[in-house]
Amino acid sequence: KQEVTQIPAALSVPEGENLVLNCSFTDSAIYNLQWFRQDPGKGLTSLLLIQSSQREQTSGRLNASLDKSSGRSTLYIAASQPGDSATYLCAGRSNDYKLSFGAGTTVTVRA
Amino acid sequence: SQTIHQWPATLVQPVGSPLSLECTVEGTSNPNLYWYRQAAGRGLQLLFYSVGIGQISSEVPQNLSASRPQDRQFILSSKKLLLSDSGFYLCAWARTLYGYTFGSGTRLTVV
Predict the structure, then answer these.
(1) Which residues on neighbouring strands pair with residue B85, listed in sequence order?
(2) Whole-number pLDDT of residue B61
(3) Pairing of strands A44-51, A19-25
(4) Which stretches of chain B drop beneath a pLDDT of 50?
(5) Cβ A23 vs Cβ A76: under 8 Å
(6) How far is B14 from chain A (nearest CA, A)?
(7) Nearest alpha carbon to residue B45 among B76, B24, B79
(8) What pLDDT score does A82 carry?
(9) How far apart, in whole angstroms, are the C-alpha atoms of residue A17 and residue A81?
(10) Peptide bond into B8 cis (omega under 30)
């Protein structure tokens, strides 16, 4: 069974600082890994999807890497803004169609 | 483009009452469909998933059931709600090579 861990659980940074969010998973036979954003009381918004054959994905200020051999993924957010404040979740999909979630990292960007 | 609809957005139900939450997907065919629950302060728990009409897999023993009467419709039900059924329920769909797309969620409070 895929186990996903996210560190740290919470992060507070001043505006403009780069954010680094870590995710680790136990099953290296991962099908793909997805990063989501969740605002309080809202659903999940997909940020980036990395297939198992890929090393990284980029979208604007966001960059996510995937290292299957070490069981790690990292989400980088450049030049953080107060609007980036949210909970970020990583989720790994195994070949059994199921998505396993980490507990999330709650980010606060201080203006 | 693909969209996912989930309703109602919020629901307050007394203990012992029935439940029916509906989720529909547009713009795709034969998707995998999922129900997740997010309890307060906890991560996302997979409740049910379906790879086709009438095919339901349950992840945890519980007071809930799911049905898929049509290709793009997924229903979460209960005959008698418990206080412990309170939470944020999320429907999602996925297809091969695509990531997961989540609905906006239903906040259920059992009183």
Answers:
(1) none
(2) 67
(3) unpaired
(4) none
(5) no
(6) 21
(7) B76
(8) 97
(9) 8
(10) yes
Mean pLDDT (whole number) for A62-88? 96
User: Among all chains, which residue has been given the structure tokens 């186990």?
Assistant: A3
Strands B19-26 and B73-78: antiparallel
Which structure tokens are listed for A66? 């995937």
CA A7, CA A28: separation in Å to the nearest integer?
19
Contact A98 B49 (CB under 8 A): yes
- Distance between CA atoms of A16 and A18, rounded to whole angstroms? 7
Neighbours of B54 (CB within 10 A): 9
pLDDT of residue B14: 98
What would the DSSP string read from start to end of chain A?
Answer: ---EEEE-SEEEEETT--EEEEEEES-S--SEEEEEEE-TT--EEEEEEEETT-SEEEETTEEEEEETTTTEEEEEESS--GGG-EEEEEEEE-TTS-EEE---EEEEEE-
Q: Which tokens belong to B43? A: 């991560």
In this structure, what is the dihedral angle of CA atoms A32, A63, A67, A29, given to the nearest 10 degrees?
Answer: 0
**pLDDT for the residue numbered B84:** 92
Which one of B6, B44, B49 has the shortest CB-CB distance to A101?
B44
Measured between CB atoms, does B8 come within 8 Å of chain A?
Answer: no
- What pLDDT score was predicted for residue B51? 92
Please check whether residue A13 touches B, CB under 8 A.
no
Chain-chain contact of B104 with A36 (C-beta, under 8 angstroms): no
